[in-house]
Amino acid sequence: MREEFAKALEKGASGGGLDREDIITLLQALPGEEEEGLFGLADKVRQENFGEEVHLRGIIEFSNYCRNDCFYCGLRRSNREIRRYRIPLEEILAAAEYAAGLGYGTIVLQAGEDPHYSGAELAEMVRRVKEVGNFAVTVCVGERSLEDYQLIKEAGADRYLLKHETADSGLFSKLRPGTTLAERIKRLNWLRELGFQVGSGNMVGLPGQTVETLADDILLLKELDVEMAGIGPFIPHEQTPVGDSSPGDLGLTLRVLAVARLVLPKTHLPATTAAGTLHPKGRQMALGCGANVIMPNLSPASYRALYQIYPEKAGSKEDADESHGKITSLIKEIGRSVGSGRGDSPKDKFRE
């Protein structure tokens, strides 16, 4: 183990704040002793803060319309090859009832940035889902007005997920034409002020990304003091401008996840579907590197394959029973247990 790596790892183990150079050093862990040391420490920090429970967040992807034209996403508005859909409210509620029957503590209402839905309509969706079961409800519908966020919160939404995607403002605007990182961060601050448990996160392996950018991603998540951070690999979609790019590296993704766990000890970190898409054991590997959440897809089977932010998404060809069964099995296979309750943030102000 290199001396500078050992020092950075020891700093992380002692609870000392990791600075940017420490983070860059740890992100460059070499296979073997260095990676094993990093992953082992991240797993220890996860266990100390969250125990052995893996919390399930059931996602309902209720619309694949999007006003944005992001270079990396298959839902981009310029993609004419995708079949668009909006799930009727009755089917959304049926999926929520299914989740309630399985004991899920969280429902995630996710969609592209679909202007069809007003703030009032989104609020009504949240209200109706909250009536189905004792859920925490996470909303993930992108950038909206402050008034819309207020309506959603007043309707009972507990959490909001708005990934910052990349902390490189130039890369952000290049890959997301017509949008800026500054506007994204402004909304994340609004959500914090409104009392949401806030989720953000980034992709690993975006074209033009550097290890320094990834360090900045982790530091931005710390600055935002997020309750959840979704960190997963970039997977190219052939119907996008960067479709011929290489996918993100799973090893680097796991290192970013592990370092994030050291910097954000009390933040929920999912083992992402994208990791499971890149490698059949990707989610299990992530759970061994600091992750403590999995987000199974509970969308009705007829819509699943149409929510193609990237191709061949893990679970997109399964029904909800298959997805749930596989995920609970993989959790038990690695000696962990399925979490009970809502799985709120362990930060004092969000304790159940």
From TrEMBL:
Residues 314-325 have a biased composition (Basic and acidic residues). Keywords: 4Fe-4S, Iron, Iron-sulfur, Metal-binding, S-adenosyl-L-methionine. One of its GO terms (molecular function) is transferase activity. Binds 1 [4Fe-4S] cluster. The cluster is coordinated with 3 cysteines and an exchangeable S-adenosyl-L-methionine. S-adenosyl-L-methionine binds at E165, R176, R184. Residues 314-352 are annotated as: Disordered. Its cofactor is [4Fe-4S] cluster; [2Fe-2S] cluster. SMART domains: BATS, Elp3. Pfam families: Radical_SAM. [4Fe-4S] cluster binds at C66, C70, C73. Transmembrane segments: none annotated. GO terms for biological process: sulfur compound biosynthetic process; water-soluble vitamin biosynthetic process. Residues 52-274 form the Radical SAM core domain. NCBIfam families: rSAM_HydE. This is [FeFe] hydrogenase H-cluster radical SAM maturase HydE. It comes from Desulforamulus aquiferis.
